[in-house]
């Protein structure tokens, strides 16, 4: 299995190569040169498998010769054994046709654990084989950082630096990052918003000498391995509801477009997906794009669903490349224009193709609180604000055919956003026992200006100290 860049000017790599590289050298994102596809009979044969087994079978086609199946299966077995529910990703029925796919039973209580817990061992395996070490840098609006830190803490071959926007994450999210005092972990709080953090990370990757010197690697959702590791749960839910003999729809609270792109990839592999609903808070660029081909950046505004406070969704480039019939020059031209002008003139034919599958939905904070309350009243279900946007979107935009169930990606545990849930329902969701003392733990992080040179100096100081120690 070989991977190509969406901008067409990077050398193709194998799975291990894209795992370690993250972003391609030409600024593009890696995608499989050809998509693996399963026949109807092959999909049927996957019904009823335990999550770890299913995920190994669906991820392995993306690994090719880079990783033996047995090694991958050992990794998925160990990774998902750490989850707090025997189903790993249980499906909870909310009404006659809506289901919550709970993706928050991992160590940091958000869906990113499903991919990240696998990324840690994948990196270890690749680096041990090569006798190398790398510096992982990442930007987070909250959940990626803690999931990456939990997956990489105390791993020999990895140093980790995570940038988060100062004061823009929830306290639980911040503490899940800043209370990990392992010597290979460092947290920077950047004076800016998530896009500022993401730009700084891109800046480090685009600084070739720095990138080489530090052997930078990424665990943000631009890393292909993360997308690959998110495909299995869409299949798991769909198979449980009757796929491949019954189509399903998915509603995905969306920020960087990684999670919903994994659902798109599952469909590309042959899973019958009738509709993909993209949920947004007031940072609604994707919803505006889908409604009216208006892909234009506005300022990022803080909301009750901070993991979706994003304007520039980096994984959208992957869909764009596919919508443009995999034309790398056209993709690059669009992306460069988007960067310069803050708006992207997607050709009408490509936009129309997107809208045959995708629908966009926006919910403001007040309506999000009302939806959390409604779920508690009608189904006795406590949802976090991100998940609530997904359930509201599912109701508004379910396919006309009532035989199509709608699966909502429940992306965070309600205890991750206790203030919003308490405000909506009067009930404060308790943290699970493993995190019960989080508010009493010591925190460590540095506050930095949004300045590339300063951030690079901070990364150097961290990795030098680590190698010396
Ligand atoms: C990261 C995150 C999202 C957004 O996912 P993307 O893959 O970036 O679109 C949504 N909800 C929660 C709780 C998250 O942590």
From TrEMBL:
Keywords: Amino-acid biosynthesis, Lyase, Pyridoxal phosphate. It catalyses: O-phospho-L-homoserine + H2O = L-threonine + phosphate. Its cofactor is pyridoxal 5'-phosphate. InterPro entries: Ser/Thr_deHydtase_PyrdxlP-BS, Thr_synth_N, Thr_synth_N_sf, Thr_synthase-like, Threonine_Synthase, TrpB-like_PALP_sf. Its EC number is 4.2.3.1. Belongs to the threonine synthase family. PANTHER family: THREONINE SYNTHASE FAMILY MEMBER, THREONINE SYNTHASE-LIKE 2. This is Threonine synthase. It comes from Craurococcus roseus. The gene is thrC.
């Amino acid at each position: 299995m070989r991977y190509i860049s969406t901008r067409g000017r990077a050398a193709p790599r194998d799975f291990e190569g894209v795992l370690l590289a993250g972003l391609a050298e030409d600024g593009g994102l890696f995608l499989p040169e050809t998509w693996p596809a399963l026949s109807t009979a092959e999909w049927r044969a996957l019904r009823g498998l335990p999550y770890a087994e299913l995920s190994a079978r669906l991820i392995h086609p993306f690994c090719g010769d880079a990783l033996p199946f047995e090694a991958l299966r050992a990794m998925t077995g160990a990774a998902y054994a750490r989850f707090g529910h025997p189903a790993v990703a249980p499906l909870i029925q909310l009404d006659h046709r809506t289901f919550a796919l709970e993706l928050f039973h991992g160590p940091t209580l958000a869906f990113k654990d499903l991919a990240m817990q696998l990324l840690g061992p994948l990196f270890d395996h690749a680096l041990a084989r090569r006798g190398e070490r790398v510096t992982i840098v990442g930007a987070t609006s909250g959940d990626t950082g803690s999931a990456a830190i939990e997956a990489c803490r105390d791993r020999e071959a990895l140093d980790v630096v995570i940038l988060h926007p100062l004061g823009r994450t929830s306290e639980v999210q911040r503490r899940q990052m800043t209370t990990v005092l392992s010597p290979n972990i460092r947290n920077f709080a950047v004076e800016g918003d998530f896009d500022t953090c993401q730009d700084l990370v891109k800046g480090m990757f685009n600084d070739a000498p720095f990138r080489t010197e530090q052997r930078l690697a990424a665990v943000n959702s631009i890393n292909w391995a993360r997308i690959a590791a998110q495909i299995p749960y869409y299949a798991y839910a769909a198979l449980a509801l009757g796929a491949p003999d019954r189509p399903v729809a998915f509603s995905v609270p969306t920020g960087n477009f990684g999670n919903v792109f994994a659902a798109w990839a599952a469909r590309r592999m042959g899973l019958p997906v009738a509709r993909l609903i993209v949920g947004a808070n007031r940072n609604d660029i994707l919803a505006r794009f889908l409604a009216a081909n208006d892909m234009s950046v506005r300022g990022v505004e803080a909301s009750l669903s901070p993991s979706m406070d994003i304007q520039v969704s980096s994984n959208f480039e992957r869909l764009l490349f596919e919508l443009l019939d995999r034309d790398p020059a056209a993709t690059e031209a669009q992306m460069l224009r988007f960067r310069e002008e803050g708006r992207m003139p997607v050709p009408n034919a490509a936009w129309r193709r997107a809208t045959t599958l995708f629908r966009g939905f926006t919910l403001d904070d007040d309506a999000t609180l009302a939806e959390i309350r409604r779920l508690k009243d009608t189904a006795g279900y406590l949802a976090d604000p991100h998940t609530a946007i997904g359930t509201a979107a599912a109701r508004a935009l379910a396919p006309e055919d009532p035989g199509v169930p709608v699966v909502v990606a429940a992306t965070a545990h309600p205890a991750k956003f206790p203030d919003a849930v308490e405000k909506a329902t009067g009930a404060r969701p308790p943290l699970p026992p493993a995190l019960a003392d989080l508010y009493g733990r010591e925190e460590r992080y540095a506050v930095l200006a949004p300045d590339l040179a300063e951030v690079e100096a901070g990364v150097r100081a961290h990795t030098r100290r680590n190698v010396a120690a």
